[in-house]
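User: Fold this, then the next.

Assistant: Folding the first:
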Amino acid sequence: MGNNECIAMLLAGGQGSRLKDLTKNNAKPGVMFGGKYRIIDFSLSNCFHSDIYTVGVLTQYKPLLLNRYIGNGSAWALDKLGQGVSILPPYMDTKGGNWYLGTADAIYQNLEFIDMYDPEYVLILSGDHIYKMDYSLMLCYAKEKDADLAIAVMEVDWNDASRFGITNVDEDMKIVEFEEKPENPKNNMASMGIYIFKWSILREALLKDAGNDNSDHDFGKNVIPMLLNEGKNIYSYLFEGYWRDVGTIDSYYKANMDLLEENSEFDLFSSEMRVYSNNETWRPHYMGEGADVNNSLICDGCTIEGYVKNSVISYNVTIGSNSIVKDSIIFNNAVIEEGAVIEKAIIGENMRIVKGSRIGSLDSDEITVIA
C-alpha cells in the first residue's frame, strides 16, 4: 500500500463546547479560521508537506460537515493510490460498539485500520491546533533517539503551564517524568498533543489500557505514564514555531487577530508550508464607492460597502453601506445590513445582522458570539 513507514491518525471528533455556539452544529476541527480555512486544514496540510500520505481522520461529534469537507483528501493531495485520507467514525461490530471514550480508546478502536498498513511508526495528531510543522523532522529525531515514543513540546507561558501535560527531561531530552496538568509544574515545556509511537509499542499499550476498567483511556493521563513506568524510551522533541490551541473563544479570537499583526509570527502569505483548503471558489470580492477597509483579511465573493478595520472577513459576506465592522471575525455567507455596528465580535455562518443593530463593544472584556 505504498510507502507507509509512518501513518497519521488525526483526532477530529471533539465537541469543542468551550467554543460555545461556534460548535453547536459543527465539530471543532470544522470551524472556520482565517477567513478561508477550517481548523483541520493545518494538520492535513502539515501531513502533505511531511510526505505522510496515509491519514485516518477520527470523527465523532457532528461529523457531517467535516466528512463532506474532507472528502477523499484531494484538496491536500492526500488521495494517492493505496494511501490517502480515511474517515473513521465509531462503529458497531459483532462485539458491540461504543463512542470513543478517550484519545487512546479512539486509536484502540481502529487497530484493524492501522494493522492493514502495518507501519513502523504512528503519528497521533489533534485536528484543532493552528500551526505549521514538518513531521518528517520529528520522525528523523525519533529514529535517531531510537524512541519508543517522541512527544512534541514547546515552551509556554508559566501562567498557562498547568493547562498542559508537562515533560520533565534529563540532559539528553529523555523524559523522566510526565505530569498531566499539574497544579505546580516543575517547568514550562508543554506537550503539544503530537506523538510519534513505534507501532509495536503503541499497539501493546493500547491493548493493556483497553483491559483496564479504571483507565480514562487517555494518552496523557494513562498511556504515557504507563509506558514511563515500564521504562520505555520516551523523548521530548522541541518545537519552536507558532502553535496555538484554539479551544476557547478567547484563544480562537486571539489566533485570528494574530494574522493581522504587521510582523505576525504566523504567516499565511508565505509559500513555505502553504496551507491548503477545500472551500468553494467564489467571484472576486467587490469594494463599493463607500467602502473603507483597513488592516483586514477579505476573502472572495464579498461585497463591502461599509467600514472594516482589524477584521477577518470570510467568503461571500455582504457588508452594507454605513455599517461598521471593527476587530471582528465574520464567517462565510453572513449579511451585515446597512448601518449595523459590530465591534469585537464573532458572527457565525449564514447570520444576518439587521439594519441599525449594534453587536459587541471595543470597551468590553468579553468577545460577543452570534452564531
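Now the next one, as you asked:
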Amino acid sequence: MKGWLGKILRTGRVVEPAAGAPAAPLEPPAGVGGSLQVRHVDAGSCNGCEVEISGAFGPVYDAERYGARLVASPRHADALLVTGVVTRNMLEPLRNTVAATPLPRVVIACGDCAINRGVFADAYAVAGAVGEVVDVDVEIPGCPPSPDDIVTGLRTVTGK
C-alpha cells in the first residue's frame, strides 16, 4: 500500500496532451471571462451522446480545464448543450429552456441527431432537428461525438 501511494504522488495527474486552441468561430458571450456555464438538455437522444459528455467532463478529458462547467439550471447557464432529435414531447420544454437562459447565450447542437435528425429522421415522434426548432450557434458532429470532439466544440466557444 505504501509503495502505491508513493507512486501515485510521484506520478501526479495523467491526462491526454491538449491540442492547440481551435479558432473561435464566434465571440464568447458577454461576461464569459474565464468560464462557460453549460446546461445540458436531452431533447430525445439514445443516450450515446450523454455517455460521451460525461467522458468529456470526466478526469481524462477534463473540459473544465478549458473553462466549461456543467450547471443544473438554465438560469445559471451561458450555453445550452442540446443532444438528440427534438421529440414532440420535448418541443416546448426545449423552447422554454432556451427562453430561460439569459442573453447572450450560445446553443450547441451535439451529435448527428441534433444536427440533422440522424437515424431518427423519419420517426413518427420527431418534431425536428435542434436547428429547426431553435437557433444553433455551434455544431458538434458525430454519432456519438467523441469526448475529444465535444471538448474541442466547447473550446471554440471559450476560446481557450
